[in-house]
Each structure stands twice: as structure tokens, then as C-alpha cells.
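Table 4 source record.
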Amino acid sequence: MNISELKTERLLLRQWVDQDLSAFAELNSDPETMKFFPAVLSLEESNAMAEKCKSLISERGWGFWAVELKSSGEFIGLVGLHIPKPNFPFSPCVEIGWRLLKEHWGKGYAIEAAQESLVYAFNTLNLNEVVSFTTVSNRRSRSVMQRLGFSNTHQNFEHPDIEKDHLLSEHVLYKITKQEWQEKDV
């Protein structure tokens, strides 16, 4: 399988390497970064997630890429595309997502990397639609979705992997079609 690397002005979205694991574990163990997830991840859970991302990229050529700053080679998080489990009410689909170390928030990196991921989704994978979702209270991620041109579907759902009575169970679903994305970029 040909593994895709994406480049933006400031970022490289690439396959995972062992040197990413400690910074990724730091990201996943930070309570502020993980505020909108049910729990922080242990070192083992974080490493398993990175390995899963790496293996999916190896299989498909794309996925949740490791993101590094081109200027320094520093790993700053993950951004990319993923096929959610079939138990989501809107499956099958491809989602876009991001998770960055908090010292890199507010610099436009999530949007920059996500825009390049959308180019890949629509031009290379020829998808008709990409979704994104987060817990209702995650205003920062919802703002990124809106800035990328995604629309709220107003089809909130209970995340199938979170207990129904958990604060974070209710999620919002955003979508963008290929046509909407093309019209946005005109």
C-alpha cells in the first residue's frame, strides 16, 4: 500500500514513528486536552492508539496521521481521516478528527492540517461526504468544524462507546459534502 504524506505550509502529516509515542502519551494524559473524552489514557492505552493509527495507515495509505512542525520536526498531535465503527448511527462514513498538544492550540494548526486532509478526502479518495463529531459541550472543536465549512446536522446522538448517563455521551454530528467543500473554496 502506498502510504500518503500530506504537506502544508507549516506542517507534515505522516506515518507514525516510535519517537512520537512519548509526546502522544503526554497529550493523552493531559486532563485539559482530554476534557471532552471519558478519561485520560494510560501510557499503554496511548501507545496502543498510536499503533492502531500506524497500522491503519499501513493498510489503507491514510488515516489519523502524526502531525509534525516542518520547521523543527516536533510532533504536535494527530489529524486526519478515520472510518468509525459500524455501531455509529450514521455509519458507514469517513470522519475527520484532530487532537493536538495544548501548547499548539490557537495557532491554526488543526484547521491547516484538517483542510489538507479534506483535499485528500475529496480529491484522492473521491468521497462524497466527510463527517465530524464531538461532545455537545466541546465548543473549540465545534468552532474548528464550522470554520472548515462543516454544517451541524442537528442529528445529535449518543456515542455508542460512552455510557448513556455520562456527561459526554451526547454528541453533535457535523457534515460537509464534496460539493459544499468545492463551493466553499471557489
